[in-house]
Each structure stands twice: as C-alpha cells, then as structure tokens.
C-alpha cells in the first residue's frame, strides 16, 4: 500500500510474541494481519492474564481483534456454548463483529449468533438452538430473547464485551443493559470499548468492570493535514447537479469521482461529456487493455476527470489528483481512506468532497469516526447549484436513453468490447444530436 495519505502505525511484536496460540497466529496470517495493531499489542497480553479491559479505541484501530482473539483463545481451552456475549449499538456493527469472530475462529469451529432488530425472531431462535459459542447482539433484541425465547439463557457466560459503549449509551440502551447485567453471572471477564470516555461510560464502567486495565489507542488510520476534506448533505435527486457544479467550479483541475457501481461510472461519464466536461470511466467491466487506455488518456491530460469504482481504482498506477469526489459514500470506511489518498500526496494540497444523501448518513458517520474528525461543509448556494438542474437532468435522460439503445444494439453484435469506446462513441453521438439543446446560461458561462 503506497498511499502517502495513509499512515499505518505497525507494531514490532508478532502475534505469537503477545501470547497467542499457534491456531490463532495462523488465523491472523490467513486474514493477512501481519502484526498486531497498537490496541491489540497492548490489550491482548492483559486479556490473556485474565484482566478486565477498558479500551479507548475507534473503529479502524483493530479493536474487534483486540477482544475477539483472547476470547477465542480462552474458548479453545474450555469449549462451551454461550461463552461470550458482545453488545453492539447497531446491527451493521454486530454483523461485522460476528464476521470477524467467524473469520478468526473458522479453523476452530467457532459458532456465532447475531441477534439484532429488524430480523425475524424465529430465525434467531433457531440459531440459538444450535448453542453458539458467541452471541453478538444489540441490547434490545438480546433482552427480547432472554425474556421470550424458551430455554435460552446466558447463565454460563464467561465474557461480556460492551463495544462502542459511548454509542450504546447515547442510543438509550441504558435500561436494557442494566437488565442484561442482572441476567448474566457476576463472575465473568468484561471488556468495554469506547471511542470517548463520557460520564455515562464512566458510570457503566464502575458498575460492571473489576479492576480494569485502561488502554488507549488512536485510530490506525489518519489522513494528512494537507488534505482538505468536506462533505455536503444533499437529497439523492440533486447529486448529479452538485457533482457538475463542483467539477465546473474546479475546472482545470484533475479529479477522480468515485461511484459504487460500474454502471454508474459509465452513466456519469456520458452525462458529464454531454455537458462538455472531459470525463472518462474506468470500471471492472472493462478489459485491462481498455482500462489502461482510459488511464493513459487521463495521465496525458486528454481527460481531466476519471470516474471509477473502488475495485477499478486499485492495482492501477493512478497519478495524484487535485480533487477526489465521493459521488457515492463507500460502505466500507477504509475505502474512504484509500480514495482520498489519491490526492494531497507527498506534501501537496488536495481536496476531497463527499456527497452524502439521506440513505448514506450512517456510512458517512462511520467515516468521521474512523478518521477521528468532523469534516467541514462544502460551501455552495443551493439556488446557484440548482440553476444547472434542467440542463443536467436533460443530459441524464439522454445518456440513459443512449445506454439503453447501446445495450440493445450490443446484444445484436455480440463480441464487441464495451466501456470506454462506447462512452466515447455515445458521447459524440449525443453531442451531435443536442447541438442545439438549450442549456442554462449560468452553466455555459461557467464552462468558459
Ligand atoms: P476494527 O477496528 O476492529 O473495526 O478493525 C478495522 C479493520 O482492521 C478490520 O477490517 C480488520 O479486519 C482490520 N484489522 C484488524 N486488525 C488488524 C491487523 N493486526 N492487521 C491488519 N488489519 C487488521
């Protein structure tokens, strides 16, 4: 990983040196975890000694491994069902935690159940019937099962983990957590992880940990100071319009625009080209030769806007750019770091703008947590941006129509390649068909 903007603080010690058994060292290797992260290196030796832990750490620090590894090591010694319970504030986090337990414990046959709201209780009851070793749950749903699922109890529990305790308490899970604490043995190990030490977290800690060791570790990921990071909350329907506005404001700069799907790279490129911007897509759907062709055009300055997905952007030698736009917010926060690492390299400055719609808020908040800072808002007068709306909507409609047509044609002449050539050909054809289309005066002015 050669990104200058990505600072990874690696540890000198190995997983074996911090006390993990051979099976778990192997499991870490299988996940390509080369050395323990800071929080893992500091917390695991104490955990293996049997101490309670308070970990001040954020997502991205490797905190899940810091509690999962010692729990699995202990499970190996006395394998029993309902061995550990992890409380998580959200269903997404609960699923991620269970995935890490399963990945680390796959060679050892670790079984997990995830108990979160919004999923059928019955399905979860069946999963509990299989007597899992680890239960990962949101507090409300766990309490539901403790009250209503026949035969299910946590009376044999050996470990309790309160993950993201600050968020758990902010989400009004206090009462549910109290009730859960009453239903589990007092004789247990407890690990509490939190990004911040609030009063509520302090109170919870005093109530349920015994002589804990406190360990602090900043996120493994941080972004460089020369990178200016901004966001803009916008309704989904105005995203294209904002994208065009920002690119136009920054005309003359080199930009990378990240989308979630290959289809979107193609559609956006067509829209932008229809509006006279020099955009080119790179997507996993294109052959390697086509991708390189597109990249060369970008490097040579023939096109100054590269539209891509996360997958396509990796493994390609992409030069540093002036601006990164997250047209779609990445669902995996680490992708954000990789994306913005394309700008502000080697001491130069750069701008990253994230366009966040109503469906992407949770992912955006996770990014802020990962990088450990609140971003500033991208400044723009909405009324000014929306002056482009008609023209952008027009360009979008035409582009969608062209893609549909080309799809039908392509089915007829199977075997021809796709991607960049198509975009180029289609862009030329709608430029011609819309030579006389009316555009916003503001936009034309901005193009000059
Ligand atoms: P977490 O902070 O637990 O959410 O972990 C963030 C990410 O870091 C996850 O994708 C883990 O798979 C990864 N990770 C955890 N520990 C390590 C490690 N020692 N080396 C490399 N990656 C790790």
Please provide a written account of the structure.
There is one protein chain. The protein has 19 helices and 14 strands. It is α/β, with parallel strands linked by helices and 448 residues long. It folds into two domains: 195 residues, 3-Layer(aba) Sandwich (Rossmann fold); 221 residues, P-loop containing nucleotide triphosphate hydrolases (Rossmann fold, 3-Layer(aba) Sandwich), CATH 3.40.50. The strands form two sheets. Strands 3-4-2-5-6-1-7 form a seven-stranded parallel sheet, sandwiched between helices. Helix 12 links the parallel strand 10 and strand 11. Helix 6 packs across helix 8 and helix 17 crosses helix 18. The longest helix has 24 residues. The two termini are 39 Å apart. The N terminus and C terminus are likely disordered. Adenosine monophosphate binds next to helix 3.
**The CATH H-level homologous superfamily of the largest domain:** P-loop containing nucleotide triphosphate hydrolases
Query: What is the CATH topology descriptor of the largest domain?
Result: Rossmann fold
Number of distinct helices: 19
How many structural units, i.e. domains?
Answer: 2
Q: What structural category characterises the helix and strand content? A: alpha/beta
CATH architecture of the largest domain: 3-Layer(aba) Sandwich
Q: What's the arrangement of strands in the largest beta sheet? A: 3-4-2-5-6-1-7
Classified by CATH, the class of the largest domain is Alpha Beta
What fraction, in percent, of the residue positions are helical? 40-55%
| Separation of the first and last Cα atoms | 39 Å
Radius of gyration, taken over Cα atoms and rounded to an integer in Å: 26 Å
Shape: elongated
What percent strand? 5-15%
- Unreliable stretches (pLDDT < 50, length at least 5) are 1-10, 416-421, 430-448
Distinct ligands, ions and cofactors found in the model:
adenosine monophosphate
Mean pLDDT: 86
């Amino acid at each position: 990983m050669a990104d200058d903007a990505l600072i990874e603080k690696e540890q000198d010690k190995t997983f074996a040196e911090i006390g993990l058994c051979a099976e778990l060292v192997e499991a870490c290797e299988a996940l390509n975890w080369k050395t323990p992260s800071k929080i893992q290196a500091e917390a695991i030796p104490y955990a293996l000694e049997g101490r309670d832990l308070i970990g001040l750490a954020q997502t991205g620090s490797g905190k899940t491994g810091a509690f999962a590894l010692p729990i699995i090591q202990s499970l190996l010694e006395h394998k029993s069902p309902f061995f550990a319970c992890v409380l998580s504030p959200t269903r997404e986090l609960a699923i991620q935690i269970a995935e890490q337990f399963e990945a680390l414990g796959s060679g050892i046959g670790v079984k997990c159940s995830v108990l979160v709201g919004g999923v059928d209780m019955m399905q979860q009851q069946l999963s509990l019937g299989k007597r899992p070793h680890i239960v990962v749950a949101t507090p409300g749903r766990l309490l539901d099962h403790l009250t209503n699922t026949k035969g299910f109890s946590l009376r044999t529990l050996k470990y309790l983990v309160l993950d993201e305790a600050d968020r758990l308490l902010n989400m009004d899970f206090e009462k549910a957590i109290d009730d859960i604490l009453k239903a589990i043995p007092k004789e247990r190990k407890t690990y509490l992880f939190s990004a911040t030490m609030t009063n509520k977290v302090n109170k919870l800690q005093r109530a349920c940990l015994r002589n804990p060791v406190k360990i602090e570790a900043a996120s493994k990921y941080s972004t460089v100071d020369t990178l200016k990071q901004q966001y803009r909350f916008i309704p989904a329907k105005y995203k294209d319009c904002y994208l065009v506005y920002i690119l136009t404001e920054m005309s003359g700069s080199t930009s990378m625009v990240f989308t979630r799907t290959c289809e979107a790279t193609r559609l956006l490129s067509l829209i932008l080209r229809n509006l006279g911007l020099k955009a080119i897509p790179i997507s996993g759907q294109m052959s390697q030769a086509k991708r390189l062709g597109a990249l060369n055009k970008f490097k040579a300055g023939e096109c100054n806007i590269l539209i891509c997905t996360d997958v396509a952007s990796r493994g390609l030698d992409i030069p540093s750019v002036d601006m990164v736009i997250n047209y779609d917010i990445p669902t995996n926060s680490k992708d954000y770091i990789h994306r913005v690492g394309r700008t502000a390299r080697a001491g130069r400055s750069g701008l990253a703008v994230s366009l966040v719609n109503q469906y992407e808020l949770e992912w955006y908040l996770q990014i802020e947590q990962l990088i450990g800072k609140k971003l500033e808002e991208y400044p723009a007068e909405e009324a000014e941006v929306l002056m482009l709306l008609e023209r952008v909507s027009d360009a979008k409609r035409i582009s969608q129509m062209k893609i549909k047509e080309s799809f039908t044609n392509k089915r007829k002449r199977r075997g021809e390649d796709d991607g960049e050539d198509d975009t180029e050909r289609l862009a030329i054809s709608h430029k011609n068909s819309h030579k006389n289309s009316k555009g916003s005066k503001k936009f034309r002015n901005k193009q000059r």
